[in-house]
Amino acid sequence: MKPIQMTIDDNLLKRVDQATQALGMARSEFIRKALEDALRSLKISELEEEQRKGYLAHPVTEEEFGDWVSEQAWGE
To answer: What is each CA distance from 11 to 15, 31, 56, 74, in whole angstroms?
Structure first.
């Protein structure tokens, strides 16, 4: 691992320290996990945008899933 230096707002740091204390984890561990979660969320957003663009370029046709319409009936 590589140490880094960063600037953080006092209020945010206080909230991070409260969370790390409640979770029983080190500040650096908490921040690493938060960064990993943010990067994972960003990747998911990018993939969702790719899918959205794909469906706009190639919309689903009625024939594509038409055979499954009867399977969607829940009955009474």
So the answer is: 6, 15, 43, 51
Closest by alpha carbon to 17, among 27, 6, 32, 7? Answer: 27
Q: What is the pTM of this model?
A: 0.73
State how far the alpha carbon of 57 is from the alpha carbons of 4, 60, 70, in Å. 43, 10, 27
Please write the tens of the pLDDT for every residue from 30-65.
999 999 999 999 999 999 999 999 999 999 887 777
Distance separating alpha carbons of residues 55 and 62, to the nearest angstrom:
14
Instruction: Tell me which residue has tokens 């006092």.
Output: 10
In the chain, where the domains are located: 15-58
Q: Locate 17 and state its tokens.
A: 């320290």
By CB atoms closer than 10 A (0-12, 13-18, 19+), residue 70 is exposed
